[in-house]
Design goal:
The protein is α+β, with helices and mostly antiparallel strands and 297 residues long. Helix content is 39%, strand content 22%. The chain has two domains: 132 residues, no CATH class; 125 residues, no CATH class.
């Protein structure tokens, strides 16, 4: 019995710890700022020299999916307590739904190919951004400033193997595709690579037939469920300023008659001139996703 109790404690304690952290940190930009400052202060001079970049450094907005060597401070060079603060930053930027997926994807890449950067030195009242980047996961928190320009992301998601991490999104998309006739599918076709702008392709959600329009809005909302309440407000505000969800255009290309695990090979995008929310099937069990937005000039 004692052995069993010990096993239960060993298995459940980490889970309870993660849930407790999520309760404290999720949904709060204020918490994210506090954790970012604490993390930066904990870095020694060598670590800071690798992690710190100028606020306007172009790498802040780079979008790279592969597990390559990147600019920044590798997670392998962090102390355990510093790595724990990075995890808290993930919790602060995401919902419980998003955190569980981002933390799972993070495990797919070794610590020497996971990098953090600070763009501008963190501090109360100072302008700075925090970025975590690795294979299939980039999270950027970039509004710690009084002169925020309103950008969201870029955020990269996905996985390889992805398994069932994003199956709820896929189920909505497949249901949507089933409602569309060949003529509508032809009009929806457009660029497929994750990160490619939507251009002039696609059909506005408001112009889709029922129930496709409702399913499209549901699919868009499911992707945004990844983010914390504060992060979600930011991108919702950008979308609202451009006419709302109904004005977002949908692009759907490829074979969406079955899921990617069964051989389906498709891509979809929601967007406008300055919003992009997409999914690219990069192969069986392999997905790339991009989320980025900024106010129109």
């Amino acid at each position: 019995m004692k052995k069993f109790a010990g096993l239960v404690a060993f298995v459940l304690f980490p889970a309870f710890t993660l849930l407790a952290s999520a309760f404290v940190f999720q949904g709060s930009d204020d918490a994210a700022r506090s954790v970012a400052i604490e993390l930066f202060k904990s870095l020694d001079e060598q670590q800071k020299s690798e992690a710190l970049k100028a606020l306007d450094d172009k790498d802040r907005f780079s979008e790279v999916f592969p597990a390559v060597e990147r600019k920044g401070l590798a997670m392998s060079k962090l102390k355990p307590e510093q790595a724990a603060l990075v995890e808290k930053m993930i919790l602060a930027m995401t919902s419980s739904y998003g955190a569980s997926r981002c933390l799972e994807v993070a495990k797919q890449t070794p610590a020497n190919r996971r990098y953090i950067n600070f763009f501008g030195a963190p501090g109360d009242g100072k302008s700075f951004a925090f970025r975590l980047a690795q294979h299939h996961l980039t999270l950027l928190h970039c509004e710690f400033s009084t002169d925020d320009k309103g950008e969201f992301g870029p955020v990269l998601l996905g996985g390889n193997p992805v398994n069932n991490l994003w199956e709820e999104e896929e189920a909505i998309l497949l249901a949507l595709a089933k409602t569309l006739d060949k003529e509508t599918l032809a009009k929806l076709a457009g660029p497929g690579g994750s990160g490619q702008a939507i251009g002039k392709s696609g059909i506005a959600i408001k112009d889709l037939p029922k129930p496709a329009s409702d399913l499209a809005a549901k699919l868009l909302a499911k992707r945004l469920d990844v983010f914390s309440a504060d992060r979600r407000k930011k991108i919702d505000k950008i979308i609202a300023s451009q006419g709302g969800v109904e004005q977002m255009k949908l692009v759907l290309s490829g074979n969406a008659t079955q899921g990617h695990m069964q051989g389906g090979n498709y891509s979809w995008k929601f967007g406008s001139d300055s919003v992009l929310i997409d999914w690219q099937t990069a192969g069986k069990n392999h997905l790339h996703m991009t989320v980025r937005a900024k106010p129109k000039a």
